[in-house]
Write a structure and sequence with these properties.
Blueprint: H1 18-37, H2 54-62, H3 79-93
Helix pairs in contact: 1-2
Amino acid sequence: MLGSRTDLHIFDAGSVNGTRYCNEILLPYGRLFRGAMGPQFLFMDDNAPCHRTVTVEELLESEDIEHIDWSARSLDLNPVKHVRNLLGRPVAELTALPLR
């Protein structure tokens, strides 16, 4: 798993709150990658509400996991938005042929 990627984690049901995010994502994956990467490990998430709870902040601090603090509405700092934009523009520029 390290050196490549993790399996996709699918939340079975319900909404994701800070506690669930800690238990299902941060504890298993955050610890694993921090241990493998060492002091240079920097955790990146986004401003999703479940990422910004007191529970999450306390866990990151107690596990000594440094993370990026995103400023509010920092869409241009989120690489996923750029990828969607890059892929979406060529698709949007395609002209659909009329059906006959």
